Amino acid sequence: MTIEESTFGHTKENKEVSLFKLSNGFEMKVEILNYGGIIKNIFVPDRYGKVEDVVLGHDDILGYEEKSDYFGCIAGRFANRINQGRFYINGTQFQLPQNSNGNSLHGGVKGFDKQVWEAQVFNRGKEVGVSLFYLSKDGEEDYPGNMKCWVTYTLDNSNQLRIEYRAETDKTTIVNLTNHTYFNLKDGGETNILDHNLRIYASHYTPVDSNLIPFGTLDSVEDTPFDFREFAPIGDKIDQEHTQLVNGGGYDHNFVLDKNNGECNLIASVYEPISGRMLEVLTTEPGIQFYSGNFLKGDIVGKNNVPYEYRSGLCLETQHFPDSPNHKQFPSTILNPGEQFESTTIYKFGVEP
Ligand code: BGC
């Protein structure tokens, strides 16, 4: 178990950004930046032992600042969309910046993904990691309350990357935190992810309008292209004439997880048949946004000069449901002073024959 720290570069505002290389001695290496809490690389073996990077991203900080579609980052203070950026707390209206098609997306113009976090490394022998801290000030991106946020990445000796989130506020606010890594278990983004097999333990999902805002209903996945309760190739039904696939431009939907008891349950798996790589996702969160990279279109050139083409990466964003503040029936995203927001997600890697 080792952890190394080095300087990755400087932001345009001349803030120094550090790179943390976590290695577990079992051929898994994870590289993390304190800019945006970004997971820059995840190196894992395929079934023949070939170790390769399986996530999309950039080789330099400028790439992340200028040409990133939230690659690898922590999205916050409120991940995903809020309808017209508007919500109410105890009758008081709050208006967030409308940074995506009239809606708020992933925390606004300068969300948690674009901040430089304080970082502290640790090595406990059986696991290594880095703890990140960011203070989001009262009024930042028009959210109420000073919110302290801690995100800890831990790599252990069973090829698990654990992400623990914690937050506190001094005024009632809203919070929804996720990691926005794009995975491509075959080649890190050189080709598309349509042959990846996906399983999500969810009998329901939250259908959306053409602006990707949920109606507030929970629809059954039964007999729809959204039924991933058994492994299915992502590409099988993605182009069906289903209204929800049309609205999402493919999969860009929140799945309502069947197991939601506060424990860190196995809720999704991805298997890529050529490499044999398997990713299992465990979380304490009630939902997961499965995004099939429909907005990638080849104009972002990432690591090793690879242009990220249409659907070359997939995101599995564990979180509360989109637009929760405007849907009382959804699990609450309100955080009050004196309360702790806590959430854990694990990405566990392995291979299948
Ligand atoms: C959203 C997509 C969005 C993407 C931006 C995802 O979390 O669901 O709609 O385009 O983030 O990278």
Automatic annotation (TrEMBL):
InterPro entries in alphabetical order: Ald1_epimerase_CS (IPR018052), Aldose_1-epimerase (IPR015443), Aldose_1/G6P_1-epimerase (IPR008183), Gal_mutarotase_sf_dom (IPR011013), Galactose_mutarotase-like (IPR047215), GH-type_carb-bd (IPR014718)
Cofactor(s) required, per the database record? Ca(2+)
Instruction: Keywords in alphabetical order, please.
Output: Calcium, Carbohydrate metabolism, Isomerase
Q: Which pathway is recorded for this entry?
A: Carbohydrate metabolism; hexose metabolism
EC class name = isomerase
Catalytic activity, per the record?
alpha-D-glucose = beta-D-glucose
| Subunit comment | Monomer.
What is the name listed in the Swiss-Prot or TrEMBL entry for this protein?
A: Aldose 1-epimerase
